[in-house]
Amino acid sequence: MRHFMYFCGMKLIVDSGSTKATWVWLREGMADVAVDTMGINPVRDRAEDIERIVEGVAATLSSYAAVDVSKLVGVLVDEVYFYGAGCIAPFKEAVEASLRRHFSDAKVFVETDLLGAARALFGLREGIACILGTGSNSCYYDGKNIVSNVPPLGWILGDEGSGAVLGKTLVGDLLKGQLGEELKEAFLEHFDLTQADIIDRVYRQPLPNRFLASLVPFIVAHRDDEGIHALLVHAFRSFFRRNVAAYGGKNSLVGFVGGIAGQFENELREAAEDEGFKVGAVIKRPIDEIVAFHRA
After folding, report:
1. Which residues, 6+ apart, have CB-to-CB distance to 276 below 8 Å?
2. Contact indicator for 169, 238 with CB cutoff of 8 Å
3. Per-residue pLDDT tens for 245-264?
4. Largest CB tally within 10 Å, which of 51, 84, 181, 296?
């Protein structure tokens, strides 16, 4: 089904992680409309699940348009810019197909969340753009394109500094007695977990990376503990050494987006200083900056 938009010269900007997506409809001369949905990751999601989310957004925007300017002739969105986790070939084709079905007169651009992060952080300037969320990623951006990318490799082989790896390190250190008995007992009581429960969630249940990332609030609550502070700084130093350093030189500005980066900005900047890197902007949610990039 085609959903008609009742205004011309419009853009639809989307920032999608694996968990949550924000869709912003830019309407010239009128207030923007923002819609939050479940995240889309075409590496993980079935085509029908992607279709359901896109169709719901199209229907929601149509309802706004009908209320605001019901007397105008209906036209479709002119441009759609979708930045998302897992939006690489050939997987992103499912996202492109669904967007084109519902916004069939629009030019559709589906790009990685990493390009969205780079544009949010640097606009048309060059720099090293990084994501620290449930997972982690980085690239060298020349002001237009991503020209180099160290593969993140996921939470088992890589994803240094991510929520999943912070959670993994926390659990390992606690259960091996590296952070003290008092902190271990506080952790197990807070989450109502046993060692057997943790082993089951990591090795037998689906989405262990999300489970591990869900433990990060404990790190936040105990960030002043000497051992937790050391864990954080060590994790972020590892991110700089194994990812950022590969782009060569230490004169380039490094920027970060993502919940982990925003939550632990102080520890992240400390790690950067230890490794000799200069950190510029740290943005928890980049959608406003991505919108500003496309509004210019």
Report:
1. 250
2. no
3. 999 867 789 999 999 999 99
4. 84
